[in-house]
Amino acid sequence: MIEAISKITLYVNNQAEAKSFWLDKMDFVVSFEQTMGPGMTWLEVAPSRDSKTSFVLYEKELMKKQNPNTPLTHPSVFLTTKAIETIHTTLKNKGVTVTELMVYPYGKMFTFYDQDNNPFLLRED
After folding, report:
1. What value does the mean pLDDT take over residues 65-87?
2. Which of 68, 74, 97, 116 has its CA at a distance of 20 to 30 angstroms from the CA of residue 21?
3. Using H for helix, E for strand and C for coil, what is the string for 70-108?
C-alpha cells in the first residue's frame, strides 16, 4: 500500500540556479545532496529538514542524455501554508513572480513561478 508522496522531480535548466531559488527565495533547505559521478549531483530541497516530501532538482539536459524518452514537462504541484497573505507579500518583496491572491469559500491561493517560469500553486485551506 502506498503510504506517502516522498519526492517530486522538478526538471530544471540549471541546478545551481534552482537551488538558489528554493533556498534563498522560498526559504527551503537542502534535505539531501550527494555527488553521483562526473557532472551529476543528486539534490533534494524541502520546506524543512523533517519534511516527508522533497523536490529533486534534476537538470533537463542530463536527463535527456540518460533517458531521451522521459517527459520533461513540469508537474502540477500544490504546496500548503497557514500564512498565505504573509508569504504572498514576502515572495513579491523577494522578486518572485506571483499572481493575485484568490479567495474562495474553500480557501485562499495564488500561483508563483520559479527561476524557469514553472508554476506552483500555494494554498491555505
Report:
1. 88
2. 68
3. CCCCCCCCEEECCCHHHHHHHHHHCCCEECCCEEECCEE
| Residue 18 lies in domain | 1-66
Element housing 58 (H / E): strand 54-59
The type of residue at 48 is: S
Q: Which residue has the higher pLDDT, 1 or 115?
A: 115
Q: Are residues 95 and 60 in the same domain?
A: no
Backbone torsion region of residue 37, taken as left when φ is above 0, otherwise alpha when ψ lies between -120 and 50, otherwise beta: left
Question: What size, in residues, is the chain?
Answer: 125
CA distance 122 to 110: 6
